[in-house]
Design brief:
The chain has 15 helices and six strands. The chain has helices spanning 5-19, 24-88, 92-106, 134-142, 155-162, 180-189, 222-264, 273-287, 292-303, 314-317, 325-343, 354-358, 381-396, 407-417, 424-437; strands spanning 111-117, 123-130, 144-146, 166-168, 193-201, 204-213. The chain starts with a helix and ends in an 11-residue tail after the last helix.
């Protein structure tokens, strides 16, 4: 049997007490034993606390694991969805709207906002956000932050200018570092804690992204800042990509306008015809509630609907008086030539149907049109829209062989052609538009 040292010491102590004296060595040993016993008891208490803490952690760990897993999952989806924005959106406003929607869905913040520098790089302006009351949105829209004042101490401006992020858990702690205007702005929005990160591309600041909590009391951490910095970087890439696409689109559209104007330039009398037909066609698209991509494609087809006339001799194109049969066939050939020329441009994406739509605007609902004698719904919708716009513009414009028709007479002609020549549904929505936009009267012309 194992007997502990304190028990043995206690037995010897009783013997010495009976003899009437206790040696110093025994006293020393006794004190050491008592100290050892005390330390052992203390150690056991600490072990007990550690065991209790361990069990508490084990009990709580599943909730923490689930919360962490959900956070990692959301962050992964956020990164994926922002990547999709970069790949799929070529318009800056679409990028901003999409980023805000994804952020609101995936991030655990009450509010978020995007600010971008204006084209001159002088002001920082609110562009999009989520979680704000309407009064806050009004304040954000009317507030601009000056980027060129060297003494500006606002967090937004400093973050943009110095290209560094900020994590503030209590705005009162930095009150002395803020300008009076910045402090008043923060108080009006009710901000207490927030994150602010610069949006950059190739080390150039484009704007800032901000997030804050006003309803939840969750403290912001370094992990929040790191996540937002990653988002800001992705937004910078998305914005730059969209900007490059928009610049390319502007160049493309400019080139097309020059090409389209080359047709009207051949004859001062018909100058502006293509642009007027395009204006009417776009209006009809709006009346039919067509989406923006379809409208843009029809707009371009309308702009080029007569481009094949570049191959028609001036002696026929500008002839005053009736055309011979051969001359009329030559004029009709412009529809085929339009399609052939436009097919050489290699339109892509939303513009891929431009050649066939532009080349089919002389088809008729009853199948008597040209060049393909298409009938009814076999005629592309864009072609049917352009046909109505072209018909009305031709009636109300001056030509070599006649004066322009007054609006009321042109409307009457539209109604006569409705159903057999022109699409009735399109004519029915276009006439009220003409009456409202241009007015009507027995002697009123489009140019009057």
């Amino acid at each position: 049997m194992h007997i502990s040292i304190p028990v043995l010491v206690l037995g010897n102590l009783l013997v010495y007490l009976q003899n009437g004296s206790i040696p110093d060595t025994v006293i020393s040993l006794l004190l050491s034993s008592i100290l050892a016993l005390f330390l052992k008891t203390l150690s056991l208490k600490e072990e007990k606390k550690e065991i209790e803490a361990l069990f508490r952690n084990i009990y709580r760990s599943p909730e923490k694991w689930i919360e962490q897993i959900e956070m990692n999952y959301n962050n992964s989806l956020l990164n994926y969805e922002i990547g999709q924005i970069i790949n799929n959106h070529t318009n800056i406003n679409d990028v901003l709207d999409s980023v805000v929607q994804v952020s609101e869905k995936r991030l655990n913040y009450d509010r978020g906002a995007l600010f971008l520098a204006d084209k001159e790089g002088i002001f920082l302006e609110f562009k999009a956000g989520f979680g704000y009351f309407e009064r806050d949105k009004i304040l954000l829209r009317k507030t601009r932050f000056h980027l060129k004042r060297p003494d500006s101490r606002g967090i937004f401006v400093v973050s943009f200018r110095e290209k560094r992020p900020f994590l503030i858990n209590d705005i009162n702690n930095i009150e002395q570092d803020l300008s009076k205007r910045s402090l008043e702005f923060a108080k009006q929005l009710g901000s207490q804690s927030f994150i602010c990160c610069p949006i950059m591309y190739e080390n150039k600041s484009l704007g800032i992204i901000v997030a804050d909590n006003i309803r939840s009391k969750r403290k912001l951490h370094q992990s929040d800042l790191s996540l937002y910095m990653g988002i800001a970087s992705a937004i910078g890439m998305a914005l730059k990509t969209a900007e490059l696409f928009e610049d390319k689109e502007k160049q493309f559209q400019s080139t097309l306008r020059i090409l389209a104007s080359s047709i009207d330039a051949r004859d001062p009398l018909t100058a502006g015809h293509s642009e007027k037909v395009t204006e009417y066609a776009v209006a009809i698209c709006g009346l039919l509630d067509l989406d923006s991509d379809t409208t843009e494609m029809i707009r371009l087809a309308a702009l080029f609907h007569d481009y094949g006339k570049i191959a028609i001799p001036d002696t026929i194109l500008k002839k005053e008086g009736p055309l011979s049969s051969d001359e009329y066939l030559s004029i009709q050939s412009h529809a085929v030539k339009t399609r052939e020329i436009l097919e050489e441009i290699s339109f892509e994406g939303i513009y891929r149907d431009v050649p066939i739509i532009a080349g089919s605007h002389h088809e008729k609902m009853d199948g008597s049109g040209y060049p393909g004698r298409l009938k009814g719904k076999d005629i592309p919708l864009g072609s049917r829209i352009i046909a109505v716009a072209d018909y009305f513009e031709a009636l109300t414009a001056k030509r070599h062989y006649r004066d322009p028709m007054i609006v009321d007479e042109a409307i009457a002609e539209l109604r006569k052609a409705s159903g057999n020549h022109l699409d009735k549904e399109i004519v029915d929505v276009f006439i009220p538009y003409i009456q409202t936009t241009l007015g009507s009267g027995s002697e009123k012309t489009v140019s009057a």
